[in-house]
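Class, look over these structure tokens:
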Amino acid sequence: MELKNTEKQEHSIVALTIEVTKAEFEAAKDKAFKKTGKNITVPGFRKGHAPRKMIEKLYGEGVFFEEAFNVIYPEAIEMAVEKAGIKPVGRADVDLGEPAEEGGLTIIAKIPVEPEVELGEYKGIEVEKETVKVPAADVKAELNRLAQRNARTETVDRKAKKNDTVDIDFEGSVDGVPFEGGKAEHHELTLGSGAFIPGFEDQLIGCKAGDEKDVVVTFPEEYHAEELAGKEAVFKCKVHKVEETILPELDDEFAKDVSETCETLDDLKKEISDRLKKERQQEADHAFEEKVIDGVIEGLKADIPEAMIESQVDSFVQDFAYRLQMQGMQLEQYLKMTGTEPGAFRAMFREQSERQVKSRLALEKVAELENIAVSDKEVEDEYAKMAEQYNMDVEKVKSLIAAEALTHDLKISAALEFLKKNAKVKKPAAKKKAADEAEAAE
């Protein structure tokens, strides 16, 4: 067999024309005959004992063609890919051309390959980066949340107020007819929590233990149960008890109760401030990183084959399915439950996948242009770090992650660090930042 022609086509497709001689294809037919001929019945012969020529005469010359093609194709395509020096990124689209000789075979394989990549100016990209601050008000708000989580309740003999918890029985009806899911006994409801239909909780404010009250509300137009959407409902409620939420004093004892490392309230405030600063710094760093990548992608020129994007979509779908399995659900169940078509579900990952592919191509090109190399020691250090992180033996980690793949990932990481180091950092414009904050507050 021989690679006769290599043709670059649009969308990073390379067409390889492979010629297989008559003798080579005949040998493949012999292998196909030995594999499948034993299952063919020919009158006058015991099953599996008829000669190949007799079978072809009875069933046609092409009886072993498909199996013979399956025999010879892997070897043919491997040879052609190696000689053409291409890097396939997806399955080939295969056609048959006119054979060079009768009884031979011409294979035309159109293969998606890594695209040629060009970058614009990638050094000195101007990128905004937030300066991380933790105002005292944020620390106070976090202290209040801790206090809420450590609050206690106490039964009170008075009318219910906002933020009190009431123990109630209720039964709802529409036009006098009770509806499914509208009844409960001894349900604990915190007034002002927004857990129930708008207006429900407000009407219980002022009730005390032993009171009965008809609460009249209207279900939202977008309510999940269509038969109730937009309908007026009456809930007959009985209050069994009212409980007041008592917050702990924010003092040194509180600090000791909620933290294993703090002795005073000031210690706790510092611990909260440090944690919030670390979290926000990580968020700011990630946002900065994403903007740097966006800046490089903006100057990217590459005719990306569809197969690369579809492969990335596959990865995201598989990851989603794996996470569902960890929760005890299959992807098919999830799609049925949410009423989502498989095609629409895959489309959800399309934009994310396209960006992921572009990011990788851009970073690989940066690594190439900057001659970024990874030493054997760096690879070994990374293996050791992963082994410690996952509490596994180093050799086990090596058996799961090939050195070539790990080296590639380290190059990508180094390329990203290079871009971040060479970026021009600027603070967000004050006007823009104020506008964004105002919009977020609306």
Q: What stands out?
A: The chain is about 50% helix and 20% strand.
